[in-house]
Structure formats: structure tokens, C-alpha cells
Design a protein that fits this description.
The protein has about 270 residues and is α/β, with parallel strands linked by helices. The protein has a single domain, classed as 3-Layer(aba) Sandwich (Glutaconate Coenzyme A-transferase), CATH 3.40.1080.10. The chain contains 8 helices and 14 strands. Helix 2 links the parallel strand 1 and strand 2. Helix 1 crosses helix 2 and helix 2 crosses helix 8. The longest helix has 20 residues. The termini are far apart.
Length: about 270
């Protein structure tokens, strides 16, 4: 906990949530992306449509799902469609504005690895895999990424291309016939990053409270570039912090008790 009363993880989640609006149709990843998207829904973006890979559309979970198959998602969704329909009609049909992902490894151009660490056939670590992330990365209007910084996760070169970002930079996406924007935002526990308009290399736009440039560089495997004018990320408001903490408290209670924690905002679906 910082002297300002919030943790780096809380700052990361809230900064990521702020990038979303009520007009977005968002394909949500499990974990940090899910927390950010639901904080947005419960605060400044009540009209946002959240979509999960299992086929749930317009879901409004009261607790954070453990996986895309969590019953909480289907129970609170406006509707649930088949996975083939989700990918072919909604995702590949260009109907989703934002894809929200995380990464085990990330490079300076927003390319993501969630498959293996090390050589593919003899990996040091086998990761969960891509799931729908490769399609999300190429078919959503744009992609937001959220993750903790470390030398293991932010690397000069990823070990495996699971989800295509900006390739080797510049117009690499266009050369492959990909018409969507790709990664447009990276939010970490230390800073907020955006890609350079020409090179597509991520650069730091704002530093979180009490974070220095040296700290950002020490936890990043490539030579970090900073914007000409680096701002300080606005700290969380009381409402943002309370919403995130209440959401996590309900989630922890539900997981501990093995059932859903009660909530006064719970919608009655009859």
C-alpha cells in the first residue's frame, strides 16, 4: 500500500478501466482485464457491453469469474450464444470495439506470448496457450493490454508469437492484410504506455504515483522510450477504489464459501 492509500495493482486496474467507455463492446480476458472492465462498468461506463469467450454477451457479474466457463457469466448475461457464433459473427464480423488482454511475455511492439517460455518443443515452462487471444488481437477494433512489469514478462524478444501485435513495427499489420488497429494501450503497475504513431513501439506516456523512470527501465527488457512530456497518472478516486475493493471482497468471499456472495445490486433475472 502506498502512502496515498492504494497499491500499484489497484492503480493499474483503475487506469486500465478508465480507457473504456459506455459505447464500447469489449471482449474480456480473465484476470486483470476482467477486473478493469467490470470496474469501468460499475463506475463511469454503465452502458458498456462485456463479452466473454464462452459466448456470454452483456454480462454483468457481481463477482470476478474464475474462468470463461464460470456460471456467473452466463447467469448475468443478456444472452449466451455458441462459441462458433461468438467468433465468426461477433468477433471476426468486426462487431467488437476493444479486446482486453494480458500476457506472460510482451515485446516493445505489443506482440504477446502465452504459449511457452523457452524453445517450443522443449520449453522451460508451458503456459495456458492462446485460447481466443490470437483472434481477439487481429479482429477487435483495438487491443488494450494490462500486466505487471518484470524482466521476465517485458522482453526484447518473445519466445513464441501467440497473439500478433505490431510485428516488427511500422506497417507490419497492414502488410499482412490486418485492418484493425492492434494494441493501442499498455497499462502496467508502474506506467501507462501507448505506441508511437510511426514505429508502433510502446513508449511511456505517464508514470504512476511515486514511480521513477529508472524503476520502469529496471523492470523492462528493452530500452524504454518516454514521451516528450511524461505526465503523472491521476490517482484513483474514492469511488474507483471503493468499487474495485468491493468487487474483490465479494469475489474472495464467494471463492472462500464456494458460493456467490450476496450483493444488494444483484439483478433479478426471474
Amino acid at each position: 500500500m502506498s502512502e496515498c492509500g492504494f497499491t500499484p495493482d489497484e492503480m493499474m486496474t483503475i487506469a486500465a478501466a478508465r480507457a473504456l467507455s459506455s459505447h464500447d463492446i469489449c471482449f474480456v480476458g480473465i484476470g486483470a482485464p476482467s477486473a478493469a472492465c467490470n470496474v469501468a462498468r460499475l463506475t463511469h461506463a454503465p452502458g458498456i457491453t462485456l463479452i466473454y469467450e464462452s459466448g456470454t454477451i452483456g454480462t454483468a457479474p457481481e463477482v470476478l469469474p474464475l474462468s470463461i466457463g464460470d456460471g456467473e457469466l452466463c447467469e448475468t448475461a443478456v444472452t449466451t450464444v455458441s462459441v462458433p457464433e461468438m467468433f465468426r459473427y461477433w468477433l471476426q464480423g468486426g462487431r467488437i470495439t476493444v479486446g482486453f488482454l494480458s500476457a506472460a511475455q510482451l515485446d516493445r511492439y505489443g506482440n504477446i506470448n502465452t504459449t511457452v517460455v523457452g524453445e517450443y518443443h522443449h520449453p522451460k515452462t508451458r503456459l495456458p496457450g492462446g485460447g481466443g487471444a490470437p483472434e481477439i488481437a487481429t479482429s477487435c477494433g483495438e487491443v488494450f493490454i494490462t500486466m505487471k512489469q518484470s524482466l521476465r514478462s517485458m522482453v526484447e524478444r518473445i519466445d513464441f508469437f501467440t497473439s500478433f501485435g505490431h510485428g516488427d513495427g511500422g506497417d507490419a499489420r497492414a502488410k499482412l492484410g490486418i485492418t484493425t488497429k492492434g494494441p493501442t494501450l499498455l497499462v502496467t503497475d508502474l506506467a501507462v504506455w501507448k505506441p508511437d504513431l510511426e514505429t508502433k513501439e510502446f513508449k511511456v506516456m505517464s508514470l504512476n504515483w511515486n514511480v521513477t523512470r529508472d524503476e520502469v527501465q529496471a523492470t523492462c527488457g528493452w530500452k524504454v522510450k518516454f514521451a516528450d512530456r511524461v505526465e503523472e497518472t491521476p490517482p484513483p478516486s474514492g469511488l474507483e477504489l471503493a468499487t474495485l475493493r468491493d468487487l474483490k471482497a465479494r469475489t474472495e468471499a464467494a471463492q472462500r464459501d464456494g458460493k456467490e456472495a450476496p450483493s444488494p445490486e444483484r439483478r433479478d433475472h426471474g
